Amino acid sequence: MAPVDWEAGTYDRVSDPQEAWGREVLERLDLAGDEAVLDAGCGSGRVTALLLERVPRGRVVGVDASPSMIDRARERLGDRVELICADLTELELDEPVDVVYSNATFHWVMDHDLLFTRLHDAMRPGGTIEAQCGGQGNVAEFERAIDAISGDERFAPYLRGERRAWNFASVADTEARLERSGFADVRVWLQPKRVIPDEPKAFLRASGLAWHMERLPPELRDPFVDAVLGSMPRPLILDYVRLNISARRR
């Protein structure tokens, strides 16, 4: 599945929930301040800037598959971070890192076996990974609404028959994949998070429906978002389930 090129400006404005989750993951990092850190799925750079503060004597590499996100991150961070536009399943770094950090990204990657292998290869032995993404059961009611609306005759020619937009993995599958990829001290757990967006339409368009926006012609994008919103309760409530990952490279 081709990577999504996000509406980076809108996402940057409405992504307070994602930043809050990212801060929680950031608190799990045990950093001395001189490490090399990979932000795997850096987005618009909101949390990448916080990573920079944690490693004043180190370096940060931000990777994202969306050119728009990388452009936005470059506006925010300048040359303080090495920014790379690349799919994480094709990641190759010139120098390995000590830490991999990721937030709200891995569920956009369909092949988690390859993802974890690439991240393992990008790390020094003994390096750690702390990450969070959508997990099994994530936004289930929202997902059902999208499936129903995608069958509408206006949208079906563009959306039906496509692969799933997300990979909301289970705890057991993620543990097994990490161990097969060469990680030890693996801890994986689910965590519920409820979000009531301040700007429901902008929030869905720039985050949950980004994959669908790419596949619809411009004139059908707003009608699709309106149709999904119209089929959901008011106010819009999104019940996220976050999959947390903590592990060490052997």
Protein described:
This protein has a seven-stranded mixed sheet with strand order 3-2-1-4-5-7-6, with helices on both faces. The protein is built from eleven helices and seven strands. Strand 4, helix 5 and strand 5 (123-134) form a beta-alpha-beta unit. It has a domain at 8-137 and 166-197 and 241-249: Rossmann fold (3-Layer(aba) Sandwich), CATH 3.40.50.150. With 250 residues, the protein is an alpha/beta fold. Helix 1 packs across helix 9 (200-208), helix 2 (16-27) runs parallel beside helix 3 and helix 9 packs across helix 11 (218-230). The longest helix is centred in the C-terminal third of the chain and has 13 residues, at 218-230.
Short description:
The protein is of the alpha/beta class.
Derived structural class: alpha/beta
H/E series: HHEHEHEEHEHHHEHHHE
**Terminal-residue CA separation:** 30 Å
Mean pLDDT: 95
- How can the largest sheet be summarized? 7 strands, mixed
Q: Number of helical segments?
A: 11
List keywords for this structure.
single chain, 250 residues, alpha/beta, Rossmann fold, seven-stranded mixed sheet, 41% helix, globular
Topology:
Blueprint: H1 8-14, H2 16-27, E1 36-40, H3 46-54, E2 59-64, H4 67-77, E3 82-85, E4 97-103, H5 112-121, E5 123-134, H6 140-150, H7 156-159, H8 171-180, E6 183-195, H9 200-208, H10 210-215, H11 218-230, E7 238-249
Parallel strand pairs: 1-2, 1-4, 2-3, 4-5
Antiparallel strand pairs: 5-7, 6-7
Helix pairs in contact: 1-9, 2-3, 5-8, 9-11
